[in-house]
């Protein structure tokens, strides 16, 4: 694997970083009421869909009404998690000073505690993006998704683990900051995670109580149908979130890095790592909104605290900079990226063959070997 520091000369890295800093500065200077109006519209839409879904559950004895209720709740939960919760908790709207949009206190409609997620995602993942043994989002401590992860017979179950993680994704994210894999290795103890566990229990209790006790009971004799409808909406949201997130991080040609090659990393090198370690998903405006604009994962990794609605605006500029410096800008439709992820999950379930150990792991490396 080519060392990250050898991709560009020091002078190129400095200029590369300066150009991306300039894009960021222009975005920050342009933020204003239009961005506030946008997120408020999304919040109103999300709340309206939730009210409609809860109301339609009272007609759940009619199949069309039940399906409509599940549809409304599914879209509501997707918007809450992707375009609202994820982005607000990244601090994308902290500049507004609006209490309801405060990243440090915002809580979302999912099983994962906001505080735990802010640590495992905002800090661990976005600081150490795709650094093996540092970024715990690489496989989520469950899957082997990269050739540099040491193979173990446990990974023969990779496809099964992936399906279960997709179905119960909110619970996988909830457990993420518990770091069970590190406990099994003896690196940390159960006691070390006492505060994490406390927040997990509190949040899980609220979510279970809301979706599987309170709202079903409110519909009286229709409680079983309401419970099933709420569970269905949660699964739809989980599957969608899993697909978007995995397609933004693990398709073919997304690269991983070692701790040694990122030591003493400059801002330009950090930007470089974000681009090489991310992938975009092409689609229309509604698709981007439903993905929380994480369909622009490259731009999100570059500027995680900039309102995500701005990512489509700057994507052509970022792509042009990549072309200027001969860097890959990984993008493709959802089905292509999803198939690519599925192929990796299946491939890395098996022990590596000798030729695979020696083979380049990315398209860039294949091109470099071919040109050598």
From TrEMBL:
GO BP of this protein: lipid biosynthetic process
Region (Disordered): 353-372
Occurrences of domain Fatty acid desaturase (ranges): 65-331
Pfam families, per database record: FA_desaturase
GO function term, MF aspect, one: oxidoreductase activity, acting on paired donors, with oxidation of a pair of donors resulting in the reduction of molecular oxygen to two molecules of water
InterPro entries in the record: FA_desaturase_dom, Fatty_acid_desaturase
A cellular-component GO term for this protein: membrane
PANTHER family referenced in this protein's UniProt entry, alphabetically: DELTA(5) FATTY ACID DESATURASE C-RELATED, FATTY ACID DESATURASE 2
Listed name of the protein: Fatty acid desaturase
Organism this protein belongs to: Haloechinothrix alba
